[in-house]
Write a structure and sequence with these properties.
- The structure is a homodimer.
- By secondary structure, chain A is an alpha/beta fold.
- Chain A has 2 domains: 94 residues, Leucine Dehydrogenase, chain A, domain 1 (Rossmann fold, 3-Layer(aba) Sandwich); 135 residues, Rossmann fold, CATH 3.40.50.
- Chain A is 40% helix and 16% strand.
- The first copy, chain A, contains 10 helices and 11 strands.
- In chain A, the strands form 3 sheets. A 6-stranded parallel β-sheet of chain A has the order 1-11-8-7-5-6. Chain A has a 3-stranded parallel β-sheet with strand order 3-2-4, with helices on both faces. A two-stranded antiparallel sheet of chain A has the order 9-10.
- Chain A is globular, with a radius of gyration of 19 Å.
- Strand 6 of chain A pairs antiparallel with strand 6 of chain B, so a sheet runs across the interface.
Chain lengths: 291, 291
Amino acid sequence: MKIIDGKEISNQIKLEIKKEVDQIILKGQRPPHLAAVIVGEDGASLTYVGSKVRSCRQVGFESTLVKLQSSISEEKLIEKINLLNSDKEIDGFIVQLPLPKHINEENILMAIDPNKDVDGFHPTNFGKMALNMETFIPATPFGIMELLKRYNIETSGKHTVVIGRSHIVGRPISILMNSKGKAGDSTVTVVHSRTVNLESYTKNADIIVSALGIPEFVKSDMVKSGVVIIDVGITRVKDDNSIKGYVIKGDVDFESMKSKASFITPVPGGVGPMTIAMLLKNTLLSRKISI
Amino acid sequence: MKIIDGKEISNQIKLEIKKEVDQIILKGQRPPHLAAVIVGEDGASLTYVGSKVRSCRQVGFESTLVKLQSSISEEKLIEKINLLNSDKEIDGFIVQLPLPKHINEENILMAIDPNKDVDGFHPTNFGKMALNMETFIPATPFGIMELLKRYNIETSGKHTVVIGRSHIVGRPISILMNSKGKAGDSTVTVVHSRTVNLESYTKNADIIVSALGIPEFVKSDMVKSGVVIIDVGITRVKDDNSIKGYVIKGDVDFESMKSKASFITPVPGGVGPMTIAMLLKNTLLSRKISI
C-alpha cells in the first residue's frame, strides 16, 4: 500500500506558486492578494482562516482578514462584499462558512463577483465547471484531481464510487472525474444516505472518494483488493488520551485498509493540506487573468 | 410492460400552461413571449424551431422567430442577443444549435441573460441546478423528471444508470436524479464511451436513462427484468420503405425490451414531446417572475 502524501504535494504546489509570484514581483507588478471574510468567533472557522492567511505569507501573497461581528446584518455583509468586489487590488476572496443563522448563505454567495470567487462556490463557476469551461474549481475536489494526477493514478474507464453528494465535495468531484481528460473519464457512481445496499457499490469500486463525515465508516470488508482510497472526511473524535482532548479521524478505517488498498490518503496529511494549496492556485489564476 | 406516454403527458402540461396563460390575460396582462433565434438553413433546426413556434400558439404565448443568415458574424449575433436581453416584452429566448462553425457557441451562450435563458444552458443556471437552487432546468432532463413524477416511478434508493455524459441530457439528469426530492434520491452511475464493461452496470440498473444517439444500442440481454427505460435517443435511420426515406429510432431495442421492462418511453412519443412542453413551462415561469 502506498500513502498519497498530500502534505508533500501541497508543499510542492506552494513552491511552484511562490516561483510564479517571484516572477510577477520581478516584473514590478503587485503580488496576488487574497481576502478572507469571517463573521463571528467560531473556533474552527478562525483556525481555518488563520491557516489560509499564514499560507498566503508562505507563497508571497498579500492577504487581508476582514473580521465582522456575528450580529452584522445581511445587508451590511453584502455591502462589505461589494467593496471587495470593486477593490482592484484584491484578486479573490472567500467568505468563511458557516454564517450566523440570520444570514441567508445563498444571498451572500450570489453577491460575490464570480471573477473573484476563488472558492468556486458561485453557481456561475460551478456551472462552468460542470460544462467543462475554464473556471475556479472548488478547492477540495481540485486538490483531489491534483493528487490523482501527480500520483499517476489511472482513472479512465475505472469505476469510481463517490460517497456523499455535498455541494463542496461529492457533487463536484463526481462531475470532474466523469469529465474528459486527465484524472477524468471515470465511470462514476454517487452513493448517499438514501442508497440501498451501499456495500454492493463500494465492493465494485476501483477508486473510492469518501466525503461523508462519519469516522471510520468505510471498512476493509466493504472494498475490493487494490482499491484506491481518497478520504475527505475530517471529524474530531473525543479522546481523553490526547492533549487536545480529541483526535482527527477520516471516513476510512485506515488500519484495516492497509492490507487491501493500493493507494490511500491519510487523515490528517492527505486531502486536507491540498485544499489551501488549491485556493492559493485559484487566487494566482485570478491575478494572472487581470495582468 | 407499461408505455410512458410522453405525448399525452406533454398535452396535459400544455393544457395546464394554457389555463395559467388564460388567467394572466384575464388579469389584463400580456401573455408569455418566447423568441427563437435561428442562424442558417439547417433542415432539422428549422423543423425544431417551427415546432416550438407552433406550440407557443397552442398555449396562447406570443412568439417571435429571428431568422439570421449563416454568414452573420459572431459580433452581430451577440448584438441581436443583447437586443433580446433588453427587450422587456420578451420573457425568454433560445438560440437554436448547432451554430455555423465560425461562431463560438460558448461566447454566444455567455451573452444570453441567465434570466431569459429558458433552455437552462447558461452556466449560471446550470450551476444553480447543480446546487439545488431555483432556476430554469434544461428542457429534456426537466421533461424526464416530470414523466417519472407523473407515472409515480419510485427513484429513491434505486440504481439509475445514465448512458452518456452530454451537457444537455446525461450530466443534468444525473445531477437531478441524484438530488434530494421527488424523482430524485437515486443512486446514479454515469457510463460513457470510456466505460469498461458497460453491461455490468446496465444489468444492475433499476432505471436506465439512455442519451447516447446510437440506434437500438441497449438490448434486452443488457438489462434486468423489471427495469424502467427512459430512451432519449432520436436518430434518423435510412429506410427506403418509409415515405420520408428514414425512420426514427431510439437508443433502445424496443421490441426485445417488451418482455423485460416494467416501464418504457417509446421513440417517437416518449421524451421528445416533453422537451417542448418544458421549454414552454420555463417561459411561463420567467413571465410569472416578472409580473
